[in-house]
């Protein structure tokens, strides 16, 4: 059975028809603050997809960018009195340390926006030449009226898009624009902001063109799976589609897979509300494998709330799993073949990445192993099944940092 995932564009769970090699692009972080649990939940969901695809015999090229110039990092760097690239460097190092601790596969490519400006300028020039973009005061805007399919990913009507654009960095009320939903491709830099030369004046790119340029450079015109948090569906991914498909006359992605957002203390985790749970704080207290296990309790595309008690409960669950798998190595487990546990794990992961069911299967197998129900075979299979989910049971459970 093929892996089935919910596709945002088709609004249904679909069989993924994939070749031997899979190209995946996942929108990365703006490196201006530490990694929080919402980031971890998103990136570990794609990591689990990759692990299952590799388990099924595919090779996967993951590309995850760093948005090291945008409307978030520049004010933060100014507030800190720090150069924006040194802030980015520091936060990228922290993010990578967190991701490595969580056992996430490193991407094949991690393009940075500031190193891809030439490709963005080329794309914007192409859009201007073809009449899909226009210069409006000190900005270059994409003219959405030239892309009649605008909105096809989200399925939102014009009113909803205008509402969200206003909330998420757009300027729908600006009367100088041709259409309320026109979005920035290039803009003049404010005093103190970085600026690059271009045929349409010095300035800096808009956020959306950054991902169109970086994904094209790394994966070509059509990506197999494009991912990101569900808050990126509109406007970010809708705008990526408009730009890229206008230029390349090919679908930007075959499948669109989005991860749900995480709440804490009653509200969506957000920097502005200050209700962030940082991975670095969490892994000072609990084993990063337990963080991974805790996140598996929540389906990737639901919106859910984190409670502090989940971390400690997962720590106990991890100790149970490690104890049950004691003496077995993942290598031994993989020789078990078509044992029931591994087959069951693969089946639930293939069913729209049902990590909560996979987690339950692991814990039930651990309970059975503890009862001595199946002996060394089940212990080996448990280790292999946990490994499939990125959890190495060969080390004792404990705090790592
Ligand atoms: Zn992006």
Outline:
The chain has 401 residues and is an alpha/beta fold. It contains 14 helices and 13 strands.
Task: Describe the structure in your own words.
This protein has 401 residues and is α/β, with parallel strands linked by helices. The protein has 2 domains: 20-263, Rossmann fold; 307-388. It has helices at residues 37-55, 73-80, 84-101, 117-129, 158-167, 207-219, 233-248, 279-285, 288-296, 309-325, 330-334, 340-350, 355-370, 375-388, and strands at 4-7, 12-15, 21-26, 59-64, 133-136, 139-142, 183-187, 204-205, 223-229, 253-259, 262-264, 267-268, 304-306. The chain has a 4-stranded parallel sheet, sandwiched between helices. α10 (309-325) packs across α13 (355-370). 47% of the residues are buried. Residues 329-338 have low confidence and may be disordered. Bound molecules: zinc ion. Zinc ion binds next to loops.
Low-confidence stretches: 329-338
Question: N-to-C SSE series?
Answer: EEEHEHHHEEHEEHEHEEEHHEHHHHH
In CATH, what is the homologous superfamily of the largest domain?
HUPs
Global Rg: 22 Å
Helix content: 40-55%
Sheet-strand content, in percent, reads 5-15%
Contiguous helical run count: 14
CATH architecture of the largest domain: 3-Layer(aba) Sandwich
What is the CA-CA span between the terminal residues?
40 Å
The total beta strand count reads 13
Shape: globular
Average of per-residue pLDDT values = 94
**CATH secondary-structure class of the largest domain:** Alpha Beta
Q: Biggest sheet: strands side by side, in what order?
A: 4-3-9-10
Q: How many domains, as an integer?
A: 2
The name of the CATH topology of the largest domain is Rossmann fold
Structural class: alpha/beta
Quick one: biggest sheet? 4 strands, parallel
Ions, cofactors and other bound molecules: zinc ion
């Amino acid at each position: 059975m093929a892996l089935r995932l919910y596709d945002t564009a088709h609004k249904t769970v679909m069989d993924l028809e994939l070749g031997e090699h899979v190209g995946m692009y996942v929108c990365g972080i703006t490196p201006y603050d530490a990694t929080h649990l919402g980031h971890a939940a998103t990136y570990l969901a794609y990591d689990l997809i990759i692990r299952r695809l590799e388990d099924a015999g595919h090779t996967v090229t993951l590309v995850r960018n760093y948005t090291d110039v945008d409307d978030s990092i520049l004010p933060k760097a100014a507030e800190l009195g720090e150069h924006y690239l040194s802030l980015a460097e520091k936060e990228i190092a922290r993010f990578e340390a967190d991701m490595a601790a969580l056992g996430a596969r490193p991407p094949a490519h991690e393009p940075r926006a500031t190193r891809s400006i030439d490709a963005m300028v080329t794309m914007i020039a192409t859009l201007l030449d073809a009449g899909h973009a226009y210069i409006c005061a000190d900005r270059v805007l994409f003219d959405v009226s030239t892309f009649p399919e605008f909105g096809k990913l989200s399925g939102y009507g014009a009113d909803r898009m205008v509402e969200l654009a206003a909330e998420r960095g757009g300027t729908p009320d600006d009367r100088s624009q041709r259409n309320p939903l026109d979005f920035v491709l290039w803009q003049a830099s404010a005093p103190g902001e970085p600026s690059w030369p271009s045929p349409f004046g010095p300035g800096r790119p808009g956020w959306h063109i950054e991902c169109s340029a970086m994904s094209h450079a790394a994966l070509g015109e059509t990506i197999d799976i494009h991912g990101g948090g569900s808050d990126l569906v509109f406007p970010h991914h809708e705008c990526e589609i408009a730009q890229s498909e206008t230029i390349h006359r090919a679908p930007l992605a075959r499948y669109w897979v989005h991860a749900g957002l995480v709440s804490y203390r009653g509200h969506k985790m957000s920097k502005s509300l200050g209700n962030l749970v940082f991975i670095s704080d969490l892994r000072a207290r609990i084993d990063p494998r337990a963080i991974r296990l805790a996140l598996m309790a929540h389906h990737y595309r639901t919106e859910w709330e984190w409670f502090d008690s989940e971390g400690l409960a997962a720590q106990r669950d991890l100790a149970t799993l490690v104890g049950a798998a004691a003496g077995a190595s993942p290598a031994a487990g993989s020789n078990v073949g078509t044992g029931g546990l591994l087959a069951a794990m693969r089946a639930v992961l293939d069913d729209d990445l049902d990590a909560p069911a996979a987690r339950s299967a692991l814990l039930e197998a651990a309970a059975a192993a503890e009862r001595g129900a199946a002996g060394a075979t089940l212990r080996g299979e448990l280790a292999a099944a946990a490994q499939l989910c990125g959890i190495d049971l060969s080390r004792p459970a404990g705090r790592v940092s």
